[in-house]
């Protein structure tokens, strides 16, 4: 009986993808230095591809894998040395194999190699025997025949990070799932028996004098059974989700080739290094991650990485570097996409934002460097002077933010240093299928928050609130956090039941739900916490997608739908409310205003102190830590400096001492504002040169302003 080879094709494709991923990652590692075991591993993958394809009579794949194996053998035996030219040929061979495997999956067969491809394979094998042939031009190998070159080129113009539509599951995991399903069925049988018992109790309740005892026992039984069933269902759901968890390598392994292809079209030399591709993420998340990743890689290549000649003039290697690093942080997967290019120019961002009317000059004057950087996420923003096929169409980063924040329930941030590159960080939940949810009550309405945005829940005395720039705030562990009533922030009408309840005049405690995105926090006043549990997230129907307040829905008991509030929207709305109040405060012209530098690693504290000072007519510049403050103080002269103590990179005591060494700051007022209340800390503050020492726990904005006025007079 003849062997039906087609049955084995799908298995070969899966195994080939694994080997191609190892080859791509291995070649990137090889460029960092020759490692004998690494070469052996690459050789084994090429050898396995050759053997497997030969068994299935996939001759075109066999020929390319064989020529790749020859070249790797020469490297392993040290007949050939590692070089940029050799790396380029190895990558080209792997790319050709990748195209062939993808064609096999799409069409069920592999096209015969054309003359160019055959010549490419021969030259690779010849080079393995004679290294001097390395300088002989090698025509790039293509998988398409001449009759379909234009069609292939059109397809290549659509960058894509490809993933498979199959999932490989270990047999042990499948057996665990089946076992759990059996236990759940058995447990359900117990529920049926309880239902029968309930009907019998109904019939005998009136005739039996001690029926209440039976009812109590029945209640205990049903509670225990329900709890047991909940545990089984929880475990079953977790196991099922684990089966859908796949390594990020499924989408990241193709990123290296995508970078090489796009770099080639831009006449740039770029290496792509990937770390952490073994980190697992829900398959649903991986599929939705591809488009944002492409946008970020496009921007790194087009806006970030400079042309080789320009890089060399700057003292950089001609070859640029893009790094994609994945790591797990508690319930999050964190992805860093960084490059060593030109970085983001804050001046260019400011100019573009002004020209497009996205902000005003007054807005820019009040913005920190990070806030200016974040303007790139606004719709229609682009600093590119030229529209290209790769990027610069005025779209992109806003799409990335919408995908990451709105669709994937994640967080995106960017760090940049002019001339040294940029790094975009994506924080993503492990899965969207089920997440930890807190349900709360506000103005009689039940609402939900996904747990990744919750910093803490605490009860504080109403007297602990402080008034800052006409806004309430609370001090939580050395940090000022704005306080706002949730119902007021989103305009919730008070429900009738809630309105009818008398409100105690002597109520002294407030329940605060502290939400967070990155380092920004907001304390929401709520009525009470209702529940905390893992729930299945339901996406909004299509006609509600434009609702930025709601990120999804969950179903609680009795099929009740509860809306999940979108935390980034709440923070943005709170900032807008604060900004409106600030703009209504009359201030002096810039030329008449004293210039104050505020240094604190807490975004909330910086913002609140700025609000206070600007309300009194001061012009404020913000710094994120001591070194940042020192750099800004040296770049321009300020009339006074306010600084925290506990900060990364350089603390406030060191900053104060360093400023006193500067000619411009020997006599300028320096005020330390900190949560450190020990007398020894006060003495140290005075010793390093501070003019005043204010403890946050007893913070009073009038006292701060009065102190500043005295020191500035």
List keywords for this structure.
713 residues, alpha/beta, Four Helix Bundle (Hemerythrin (Met), subunit A), 5 domains, 6-stranded mixed beta sheet, 24 helices, 47% helix, flat
Describe the structure.
This protein has a six-stranded mixed sheet. Helix content is 47%, strand content 20%. It is flat. The protein is an alpha/beta fold and 713 residues long. α7 packs antiparallel against α8 (211-244) and α10 (255-265) runs parallel beside α11 (283-304). The chain folds into five domains: 6-149, Four Helix Bundle (Hemerythrin (Met), subunit A); 171-246; 248-429, Histidine kinase-like ATPase, C-terminal domain (Heat Shock Protein 90, 2-Layer Sandwich), CATH 3.30.565; 434-496 and 507-575, CheA-289, Domain 4 (OB fold (Dihydrolipoamide Acetyltransferase, E2P)); 585-712, 3-Layer(aba) Sandwich (Rossmann fold), CATH 3.40.50.2300. A hairpin with a 4-residue loop joins β12 and β13 (480-485).
CATH-defined fold name of the largest domain? Heat Shock Protein 90
Radius of gyration: 32 Å
Overall number of structural domains? 5
Beta-strand segment tally: 23
What's the short version?
The protein has 24 helices and 23 strands. It has 713 residues and is an alpha/beta fold.
Question: What is this structure's SSE topology?
Answer:
Layout: H1 6-30, H2 36-55, H3 59-76, H4 84-107, H5 115-129, H6 149-156, H7 171-204, H8 211-244, E1 245-247, H9 249-252, H10 255-265, E2 270-275, E3 280-282, H11 283-304, H12 308-313, E4 320-329, E5 332-339, H13 346-355, H14 361-366, H15 369-373, H16 397-407, E6 411-417, E7 421-429, E8 434-442, E9 445-450, E10 454-461, E11 466-468, E12 471-475, E13 480-485, H17 486-490, H18 496-500, E14 509-517, E15 520-526, E16 528-536, E17 550-556, E18 560-565, H19 567-583, E19 595-599, H20 603-615, E20 619-623, H21 626-635, E21 640-643, H22 652-660, E22 670-674, H23 679-687, E23 692-695, H24 701-712
Helix pairs in contact: 1-2, 1-4, 2-3, 3-4, 3-5, 7-8, 10-11, 11-16, 21-22
């Amino acid at each position: 009986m003849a062997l039906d080879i087609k049955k084995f094709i799908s298995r070969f494709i899966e195994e080939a993808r694994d080997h191609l991923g190892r080859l791509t990652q291995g070649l990137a590692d090889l460029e960092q230095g020759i490692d004998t075991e690494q070469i052996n591993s690459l050789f084994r993958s090429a050898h396995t591809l050759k053997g497997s394809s030969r068994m299935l009579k996939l001759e075109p794949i066999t020929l390319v894998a064989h020529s790749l194996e020859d070249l790797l053998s020469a490297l392993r035996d040290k007949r050939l040395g590692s070089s940029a030219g050799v790396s380029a040929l190895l990558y080209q061979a792997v790319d050709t194999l990748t195209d062939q495997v993808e064609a096999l999956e799409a069409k069920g067969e592999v096209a015969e190699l054309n003359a160019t491809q055959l010549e490419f394979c021969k030259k690779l094998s010849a080079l393995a025997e004679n290294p001097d042939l390395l300088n002989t031009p090698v025509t790039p190998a293509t998988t398409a025949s001449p009759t379909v070159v234009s069609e292939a080129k059109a397809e290549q113009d659509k960058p894509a990070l490809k993933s498979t539509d199959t999932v490989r599951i270990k047999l042990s995991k499948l057996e665990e799932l089946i076992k759990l399903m059996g236990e759940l069925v058995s447990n359900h049988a117990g529920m049926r028996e309880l239902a029968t018992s309930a009907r019998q109790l109904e019939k005998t309740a009136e005739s039996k004098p001690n029926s209440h005892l039976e009812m109590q026992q029945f209640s205990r039984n049903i509670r225990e059974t329900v709890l047991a069933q909940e545990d089984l269902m929880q475990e079953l759901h977790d196991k099922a989700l684990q089966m859908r968890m796949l390594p990020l390598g499924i989408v990241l392994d193709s990123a290296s080739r995508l970078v090489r292809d796009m770099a080639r079209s831009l006449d740039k030399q770029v290496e792509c290094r990937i770390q952490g591709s073994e980190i697992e993420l829900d398959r649903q998340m991986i599929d939705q991650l591809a488009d944002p990743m492409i946008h970020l890689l496009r921007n790194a290549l087009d806006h970030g990485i400079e042309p080789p000649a320009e890089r060399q003039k700057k003292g950089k290697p001609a070859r640029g570097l893009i790094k994609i690093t994945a790591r797990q942080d508690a319930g999050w997967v964190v992805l860093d996409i960084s490059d060593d290019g030109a970085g983001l120019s804050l001046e260019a961002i400011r100019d573009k934002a002004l020209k497009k009317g996205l902000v005003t000059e007054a807005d820019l004057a009040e913005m920190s460097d990070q806030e200016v950087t974040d303007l790139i996420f606004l719709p229609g923003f682009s600093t590119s002077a030229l529209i290209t096929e790769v990027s610069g169409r005025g779209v992109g980063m806003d799409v990335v933010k919408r995908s990451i924040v709105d669709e994937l329930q994640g967080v995106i941030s960017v760090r940049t240093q002019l001339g040294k590159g940029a790094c975009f960080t994506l924080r993503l939940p492990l899965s969207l299928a089920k997440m930890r949810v807190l349900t709360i009550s506000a103005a009689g309405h039940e609402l939900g928050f996904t747990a990744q945005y919750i910093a803490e829940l605490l009860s504080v005395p109403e007297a602990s609130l402080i008034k800052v720039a006409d806004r309430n705030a609370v001090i939580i562990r050395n940090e000022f956090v704005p306080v706002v009533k949730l119902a007021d922030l989103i305009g919730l009408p008070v429900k009738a039941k809630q309105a009818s309840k008398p409100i105690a005049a002597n109520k002294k405690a407030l329940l605060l739900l502290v939400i967070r995105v990155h380092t920004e926090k907001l304390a929401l006043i709520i009525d009470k916490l209702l529940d905390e549990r893992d729930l299945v997230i339901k996406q909004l129907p299509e006609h509600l997608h434009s609702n930025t307040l709601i990120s999804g829905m969950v179903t609680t008991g009795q099929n009740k739908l509860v809306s999940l509030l979108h935390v980034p929207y709440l923070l943005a709305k709170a900032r807008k409310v604060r900004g409106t109040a600030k703009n209504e405060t009359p201030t002096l012209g810039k030329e008449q205003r004293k210039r104050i530098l505020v240094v604190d690693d807490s975004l909330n504290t910086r913002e609140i102190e700025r609000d206070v000072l600007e309300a009194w007519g001061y012009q404020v510049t913000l710094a994120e830590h001591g070194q940042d403050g020192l750099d800004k103080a040296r770049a321009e002269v300020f009339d006074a400096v306010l600084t925290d103590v506990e900060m990364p990179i350089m603390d406030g005591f060191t900053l104060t001492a360093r400023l006193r060494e500067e000619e411009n700051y020997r006599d300028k007022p320096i005020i330390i504002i900190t949560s450190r209340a020990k007398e020894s800390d006060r003495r140290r503050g005075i010793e390093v040169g501070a003019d005043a020492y204010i403890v946050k726990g007893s913070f009073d904005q009038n006292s701060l302003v009065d102190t500043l006025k005295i020191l500035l007079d």
